[in-house]
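Input record (Table S2, row 251):
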Amino acid sequence: MAVAEIDNPLVLFKRLNAIFTDLIGPASVREGMAERLLDEAFESFEHYVKSALDGIDAVVACRGGCASCCTIRVAATAPEVLLIKHYFLKLEKARGADFVRDLVARIEQAHEATQGVGELDRMEVGEVCPFIENGLCVIYSRRPLACRGHASFSEHACVDALSGEEVDVPISEPHMTARSLIQNALQSALRDAGLGWGIYELNHALIIALKDDNCERAWMGGEDIFAPARIADVSQEEMAETFDAIKAAVA
Ligand code: SF4
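Output record (iron/sulfur cluster complex):
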C-alpha cells in the first residue's frame, strides 16, 4: 500500500480512514486488531516520511542511544496502548519477570511524578520516560506514533534544548505531519466503529491496561476504558466535527 504517494493530505486522511475501517472489521473478528492496525499505521508512517523527505537536503539526526526528547508526554491511541501491553509478554519471556516488574514500577513512578502536567511543562519537569534503558527505548519497535513523530535534524540543538537553553530545534515537518495524519485517521476509524477513540497519556493508560485483564475485551465492546487517562487538549466534539468535515469534503 503506497498511500504516501498521495499529495493531498485530506485525500490521504480519507484513504487511511477507509483502510483502518477495513482492518477493524466486524465485531466478531477483532482478535489481533491492535497488531493489524499498527502494522499498517507504522508502515504508512515510514512510506510517508521517506517520500516526503526525498530530495530534501537534510539528514535526520535521531539515532539509537540519543534519548534527548524522551521526556515528552507520550500520547497514544487505545490500540497503541494494547500493543505495548501485548509486548510486555514478549519482554517477560525474553528478559524475565523481574525485568517487567521493574519496568511497571518505573511506569507507576513516572505517572506519579507527571500526573496532570501539561505537554509544555512536561519537558521542564524532566522526568525521563520509564521505557529508557541505557539510552535506548525498550519498546522501540512498538513505540507510539507520537514518539515516531519527533525527529530532529540536529542532535546538538536537542541536547542544548534539553539543558534548558533557548534554541530552535530544527524538527522534521514530514514526521510531524505523518504522525498527525495517521493518528487522526486511526482515531476517526475507531470512532466510526463505536470504539474508544481518544488520545491517552501513555503511562496512565498502560497502568489501567496492566491492572485489568479484561480491559481489551471491554474496549472492543465499546467501553472507553482508558477515559481516566484521556488527554483533553482538543475536545472530542471538535475533533469529531473535523473528521466528519474532511470525509464529507473529499470525494
Ligand atoms: S516510548 Fe520510547 S521513544 Fe517514546 S518517549 Fe519513551 S523511550 Fe522515548
